[in-house]
Amino acid sequence: MSLTTALTYALPHRLLSSMARSLAYSDDPRVSRWLIDTVTRKFNVNLDEAANPDPRSYATFNQFFTRALKPGARVADADPRSLVMPADGRISQLGKIEAGRIFQAKGQSFTAAELLGSDEDAKPYNDGLYATVYLSPRDYHRVHMPWTGTLRETVHVPGRLFSVGPAAVNGVPRLFARNERLVCHFDTSFGPMVSVMVGALLVSGVETVWSGEEIPAYGDRITRKDYRGQGIQLERFAEMARFNYGSTVIVLLPPGVAEFAPQLGAESPVQLGQALAKLR
User: Fold this and answer.
1) Which residues carry this modification: Pyruvic acid (Ser) (predicted)?
2) Mean pLDDT across the chain
3) Most C-beta atoms within 10 A of its C-beta, which of 137, 157, 221, 228?
4) What residues are labeled active site?
């Protein structure tokens, strides 16, 4: 484990994230411009793809970080049987959920029940598939639907806010099942599907298109919201949620419904809309 990763165990995660949130939402132009210029330069952000490419026109760093893309910058895979990639970034890991466990990194794994906050919620995904997509600070930070689905329930699972960078993923056991997260359950034409928005150190929040800000407030107990009967349906490739700083989204699929696109593997760079998997 690296020294930096080891130090994160002792850091006041929520305090640091709350401080980062204050900076991200500051409308002081000296603060916002410094943050935008620093991130753009350090992470080589491609502003040509942004609907608004002028970095000076964003009132806050958070407005810049959650910027929209210009029309046509991303398109859904042309095959109507393709489940599409939910975000820009890179594949951290993907594969089969074996004996209820999801592979994190060499020597590290966690259970689907831990991730979702419930043994019952994990049952439909026994022997199913998982895909973990890491969004870096340079990436587009809106998460979209892999497939058309009707929102059934969200589950806010409290936890820590470790970094989700490669060093932490390799060094922190059960990282994604320990960090604060929002679990979004959908009903689809092939059965259940779940997208998990995983928070991280210095993440200011998670917002959804149906209810706005979900994290913060940071939780101290599991909180469920039932959306059955409300008719909240999101189409394949439609925006679902957004991060207010870089993090990770994990998609779970039930067994036997799809196969991953063959070119995908750990560390594969990916873009929103490309084929994630194909329905059988």
Assistant:
1) 247
2) 93
3) 157
4) 88, 144, 247
- SS3 helix, strand, coil % of the chain, rounded to 5? 25, 35, 45
Instruction: Write down the H helix ranges in the chain.
Output: 3-8, 13-24, 29-43, 61-65, 112-116, 119-122, 166-171, 175-178
The residue type at 164: V
**Using the 8-state DSSP alphabet, how is residue 50 labeled?**
B
- Model pLDDT for residues 214-252, shown as the tens digit of each residue: 988 888 899 999 999 999 999 999 999 999 876 899 999
DSSP 10: T
pLDDT above 80: residue 6: no
> Could you tell me whether strands 149-157 and 233-234 are parallel, antiparallel, or unpaired per DSSP bridges?
antiparallel
| Pair of tokens at residue 273 | 């809309």
CA distances from 185 to 21, 25, 195, 226, 246 (A): 27, 29, 7, 10, 22
The token pair at 2 is 């690296």
Query: Which residues 6+ apart lie within 8 Å of 274 measured at CB?
Result: 77, 84, 85, 261
d(CA 112, CA 205): 23
Are 196 and 184 a contacting pair, CB within 8 Å? yes
Q: What is the largest CA-CA distance in the chain?
A: 53
Tokens of residue 170, six digits: 């390799």
The b/e string for 207-220 (b: 16+ C-beta within 10 A; e otherwise) is bbbbeeebbbebbe
d(CA 22, CA 4): 24
